Amino acid sequence: MSYNTFGREFRFTTWGESHGPALGATVDGVPPGVKLDEAYIQQFMDRRRPGTSKHTTQRKEADAVRILSGVFEGLTTGTPIQLMIENTDQRSKDYGDIARAFRPGHADITYQMKYGHRDYRGGGRSSARETAARVAAGGVAQAVLAQLLPDLKITGYMVQMGALHLNREAFDAGAINDNPFFLPDATAVQDWSDYLDGIRKDQNSVGAAIEVLVQGCPAGLGAPVYAKLDTDLAAAMMSINAVKGVEIGEGMGAAAMTGTDNADEIRMGNQGPYFLSNHAGGILGGISSGQDIVVRFSIKPTSSITTPRRAINDKGEEIELITKGRHDPCVGIRAVPVAEAMAACVILDHLLMDRAQTGGVRGQIG
Amino acid sequence: MSYNTFGREFRFTTWGESHGPALGATVDGVPPGVKLDEAYIQQFMDRRRPGTSKHTTQRKEADAVRILSGVFEGLTTGTPIQLMIENTDQRSKDYGDIARAFRPGHADITYQMKYGHRDYRGGGRSSARETAARVAAGGVAQAVLAQLLPDLKITGYMVQMGALHLNREAFDAGAINDNPFFLPDATAVQDWSDYLDGIRKDQNSVGAAIEVLVQGCPAGLGAPVYAKLDTDLAAAMMSINAVKGVEIGEGMGAAAMTGTDNADEIRMGNQGPYFLSNHAGGILGGISSGQDIVVRFSIKPTSSITTPRRAINDKGEEIELITKGRHDPCVGIRAVPVAEAMAACVILDHLLMDRAQTGGVRGQIG
Amino acid sequence: MSYNTFGREFRFTTWGESHGPALGATVDGVPPGVKLDEAYIQQFMDRRRPGTSKHTTQRKEADAVRILSGVFEGLTTGTPIQLMIENTDQRSKDYGDIARAFRPGHADITYQMKYGHRDYRGGGRSSARETAARVAAGGVAQAVLAQLLPDLKITGYMVQMGALHLNREAFDAGAINDNPFFLPDATAVQDWSDYLDGIRKDQNSVGAAIEVLVQGCPAGLGAPVYAKLDTDLAAAMMSINAVKGVEIGEGMGAAAMTGTDNADEIRMGNQGPYFLSNHAGGILGGISSGQDIVVRFSIKPTSSITTPRRAINDKGEEIELITKGRHDPCVGIRAVPVAEAMAACVILDHLLMDRAQTGGVRGQIG
Amino acid sequence: MSYNTFGREFRFTTWGESHGPALGATVDGVPPGVKLDEAYIQQFMDRRRPGTSKHTTQRKEADAVRILSGVFEGLTTGTPIQLMIENTDQRSKDYGDIARAFRPGHADITYQMKYGHRDYRGGGRSSARETAARVAAGGVAQAVLAQLLPDLKITGYMVQMGALHLNREAFDAGAINDNPFFLPDATAVQDWSDYLDGIRKDQNSVGAAIEVLVQGCPAGLGAPVYAKLDTDLAAAMMSINAVKGVEIGEGMGAAAMTGTDNADEIRMGNQGPYFLSNHAGGILGGISSGQDIVVRFSIKPTSSITTPRRAINDKGEEIELITKGRHDPCVGIRAVPVAEAMAACVILDHLLMDRAQTGGVRGQIG
Questions:
Q1: Residue A104 to residues A8, A301, A307, D327: CA-CA distances in angstroms?
Q2: Which of residues 199-218 of D touch C (CB under 8 A)?
Q3: Cα–Cα distances in Å, from D329 out to B52, B208, C350, D244?
Q4: In B, which residues are within 8 Å of A251 by CB distance?
Q5: D358–B31: do the CB atoms touch at under 8 Å?
Q6: What's the domain count of chain C?
């Protein structure tokens, strides 16, 4: 199985190193006849790209995406779509003095152990730069979903940053795009900003937790037993750089619950069955129930901080490492659009998987 | 992609419904020349099977596994291994009066919506009975690992059951197999037993959290970007019935950490690099580092409790549901051997994936 | 990728050795709600099984197929279908004195070189006994196709046996099931029978060529560039034991043709486009055109003949080998139902692949 | 499964339309540490590219390949390699008046029926231009094989062109690169040239047959039952544009043979077993035997000839079609380097597949 390909029906393969000439995604399995152009994808790139606020990394990339194939006269042809993004602001010299050091908390050492030869500049293939390609692929997925599932809505937002937690009572989706934290609570933005300024000045970094809400997903998506919808959503998020935990619905909290609290009871309405609660997070037995799907994941803090750390280099010498250059005090912020992209890819993938096996026909109830 | 197949090199496809004549696993990609027989696999089946303590379900299955192919004169041939387990104690009458009801918290309704036709007896394919087949496949994986990675050790245990948490200070791996909870703390067993008796008498159930520790995994396993070792471990656990969250290392707790706390510093020893801590949980950039790998997941409480619940049936009528019959007050207990089996399958899969691409040769450091 | 799995959406994995207790197929990706029972599949098994005429092998197997999962109350559930066939007439002693010899023309030696350990009895996994499992899987495919493509008709027949060729002028599909050769020409049956009797008495064997005609296949099936319909049909036939060549339409003969002869001109009729010829064999650019699809393949002669042959054994000793026991003077005869089964699996697979990507909607012409 | 991806371990996904800005291949699963640069791949591109002789198409493309990722400091990193070739000489106006016509013998009509929307310029994705990307991927495979199997030698050549057949008695591999036909017989080149000149002047085209000889392939490659080496070689060749038949060893001729003629007897030598003949074409039971592997395939004549043909357009109107512009009177010539590339990819793929399952260890004989 491709190690750099995600998906089963709607598939994309990403390529490119952080400091190579370009990176991109080869997207295959795309339904034909879908309206798509570079500007449409670019909107998703812009939400992600570095340099959009003082809190994210200072590397300035335009992240302009080009479509090199698979689209003709504004519509997809069903053939592979090559998306390419050129790297313009690599600043290789930033990494000059740690060229062969293995940075603690980074994949440098494991890549060296596995491959024996790596492009170390900027972390090479292990860099989060790769997520730019995912977001581009996610843009294609969104274009298809806009046509096949017009009621679908995917919304990502931060729920935690270090010591700070989202106040769910104050949840306001309308605030998400108006602050640099994708925070659904305008009243907390100043506190979050002050907090992160403090972290940066301490030459430190913090972790984060992000939640993605999927509304309007039809029932019946998911393919038990080993392509369950929650399995694929979990894998999608876990594959993002620095992710350490994934939850669906109640998540790790389900361990403390009792059966009386946890089961979502069912009633019948004019439009069919409906549930009285949603502890399941919209997925039962690996198949969507029609309710809101809730996925949440944690991102560990950035390791490339500028306080000295004990490390080794590729000669096996013990060194003290200070990483200079541009780094995020909280990489979690930029993962929000990446998570939305992954969710879009998974939902579309499962829509196509479902129609392969069942033709999209649903079983009757009542 | 097979929806009922797990793995990329070492692959198994499970089949069988809870109340069908049999269930099993077709295991492919097995290295030849490995010592294997039914008794070896049976030991793993026995750890899992129902009726082994008063706290697990009262369905009495021998779970005797038969090897129908792929093994000759006690050694694997490299051809597919068919493992079959006959169902002997279905008690279809237990499910008689809920035959067409959709039990809250179960996959009944989503299976009906997706497939339109389901084997409802005992939950059919959505039943945790399927995990018996996984454990059998895991037995094959363990046999291969015993030969290819003799230092590997996979240990699963409970860390939480409802309101009770493992006291990590008292951690004693030697206690795990001496109590019905796979609890690594002999001193807490009585409390856990009393607690669960209370839950059962209340006609209720509780969730659980399980941890799997993998020791002796070599560095270099895992295939970025979309077959990372942690991604596959997460997917493996998330695919188990009733799992709602998965964590690697610090897991969801990484969101609250700072960079100074989180990075595992590196030093050089006589036998190569070593780390001063293990917040990463043994995996960096999706590739194993040689340190202990720690995976943890939550299981939601059983829904099949005997207190009345509001539900509907397949005619669309609203009903009140009491499920009689045999049920687990805590399904999490039986998931421990299942989790170990999944971990074994993932590690072996990645060992073979790695040797496909790199021949198993590691890069030099120093 | 599974090495023992065929297909992409409609997939089956075969298992079982020639002299093991059983063999079978695990079929996954099956649409739900399709009428299916053992008797339906058994009709395809009966067309194939040994001992049905004096000209095929004398091993007497009932080839009774059992359905162990995936079907409930006479309809498929969309979950994996386990098909099992028990071996009852192995006659292991027939192979006693060649137990460790490598028979010329057989896979004995290559299996030993690759795997190092093999079940040598009856050829183990390399035996054509495996095709019984394919035919069972093909039966499931036929059941689905009967519902999804009721106009589809798959007909296999012999076109050559050693020195004898089908007289295409006398082609009569109605004759196929009335003679032991699946020959579409009743007038030639006696000649074929006499010829083959002569071959057997000479302790020799002959090759064969088989053609499969697929009528009523809708246009649009096939997924360029690497899952073209003709590619998958070729792979399907080439995977059958002893196949050495595969042709689509004009086949190898296309090398001698000119462009003026070869292109199929297009006209417009009341029901849409139609072609004035069919040199293409029903497939253009890897996609079906709606015309009859013609696939043809050759099978080499059986090697297990009873005249002495120079060989070696697994000690590396040179020996003279006479194979006793039951053998086919022409294995090609029994491959006809196998080829039909493979064609059914491929067509169904592509039907599902197509509906995944396009929803089955066709582009307009005129 | 990716519809535009070839391979299982060593995989490449091609992308790009004939008249798009570029085309290319995303190559994944590449072993790290292999010496590779653009010049190495370019040599294979140059053997294939149009305009290299008066007999091949007049479209002039430099086919300069760029490596955009996966290689660092001259060695592969084990990460995906993006190969890109820019299109520079599309001459879209050549296709102006057949923009919406469906050319007989081409995939225009089937693409329209399947996808509903196609890039018609130059045949879009169905054009043989796609094979340039295959050849680039084949170049990467060759670089890896040079390191892993230095004794391997892959040689492609023409064996038939229309009415002309290679005289095998005069076979001389040294002549292949010295004439525009890749013909291994210098004495016949003038006849072939005169013949093809005649075809072109008649505004016609001819088919061809090509053979690929693989020498030095180790025994044991191939993964029965559904990833047999011959199955994958057949699929590889059948996937090339305009291929209609594929043969291994004796091919279709095996149908006429008897068992006494066909089996390759086995003897024992100082270096292990050897065969007295090679009717099998180097593959037994789907696994390589160590002997020369012989694959042969036919290519149908070009349909884009300039004599008028009856066709229809996408409005459903009947038309007479004359295709102007640049066309090959024999596309088979340019398929020789493509076939070599495909063979390289298959052999490498199987080498990696084998080492995944067996670690590359061979079974002992004697």
A1: 34, 12, 12, 59
A2: 199, 204-209
A3: 76, 72, 33, 17
A4: 244-245, 252, 298
A5: yes
A6: 1
Which band of pLDDT confidence, cut at 50, 70 and 90, is reported for residue A326? low
Torsion over CA: A160, A163, A169, A170 (sign): negative
**Which residue range forms the structural domain that includes residue D107?**
5-358
Q: Is residue C364 part of a domain?
A: no
Q: Residues for chain B: how many in total?
A: 366
Q: Is residue B251 part of a domain?
A: yes
Whether residue C363 lies inside any domain: the answer is no
Query: A203 falls in which pLDDT band (50, 70, 90)?
Result: confident
Residue B95 has pLDDT above 70, yes or no: no
CATH number at residue D287: 3.60.150.10
Query: Per residue, what are the HEC states of A9-24?
Result: CCEEEEECCCCCCEEE
Between CA A170 and CA D54 the distance in angstroms is 75
pLDDT at B326: 60
CB C350 within 8 A of CB C223: yes
Q: For the beta carbon of residue C200, count every other beta carbon within 10 angstroms.
A: 18
**D220 CA to chain B: closest CA distance, Å?**
13
Pairing of strands A164-165, A153-161: antiparallel
CB contact residues (below 8 A), chain A span 133-192, against chain D: none
D69: nearest CB among A15, A33, A69: A15
A300 is in an annotated binding site: yes
Question: Per residue in D223-278, pLDDT tens?
Answer: 999 999 999 999 999 999 999 999 999 999 999 999 877 789 999 999 889 999 99
Residue B154, domain member (yes or no): yes
On whether any CB of chain A is under 8 Å from the CB of B356, the answer is no
pTM for the model: 0.95
Residue A35 counted as an annotated binding residue: no
Is D17 close to A77, i.e. CB distance below 8 A? yes
Contact between B5 and B13 under an 8 Å Cβ cutoff? The reply is yes
> Tokens at residue A50, please?
């570095």
Give the Cβ contact number of residue D237 at 10 Å: 29
Query: Mean pLDDT across chain A, nearest whole number?
Result: 91
pLDDT by residue (tens digit) across D1-58?
A: 559 999 999 999 999 999 999 999 999 999 999 999 999 999 999 988 755 555 555 5
D130 touches C at CB < 8 Å: yes
- Search chain B and give the residue with CA nearest C353: B1
Contact (Cβ atoms closer than 8 angstroms) between residue C11 and residue C137: no
Q: Residue C53 has what pLDDT?
A: 56
Q: Scanning every residue of chain C, which has its alpha carbon at the shortest distance from the alpha carbon of A148? A: C359
* Interface contact flag, C4 D299, Cβ < 8 Å: no
Of A13, A77, A118, the CB nearest to D26: A13
pLDDT at D52: 54
Task: Residue D29: list chain A partners with CB under 8 A.
Answer: 2-3
Whether the bond between A225 and the residue before it is cis, its omega within 30 degrees of 0, is yes
C136 assigned to a ligand binding site: no
DSSP 8-class letter at C143: H
Q: What's the burial of A343, exposed, middle or buried (CB within 10 Å: 0-12/13-18/19+)?
A: buried
Q: Token pair of C90, please?
A: 């192995």
Return residues 21-60 of B near C (CB < 8 Å): 21-24, 26, 28-29, 32-33
Q: Which positions in chain A touch B259 (Cβ < 8 Å)? A: 105, 204-206, 301-303, 305
Gap between the Cα atoms of C264 and D110, Å rounded: 13
Asked whether the beta carbons of residue A20 and residue D69 sit closer than 8 angstroms, the reply is yes
Decide if B293 contacts B284 (C-beta within 8 A): no
- List Cβ neighbours of B354 (8 Å cut-off, separation of 6 or more): A114, B220, B221, B222, B223, B360
Average confidence (pLDDT) over C13-35: 96
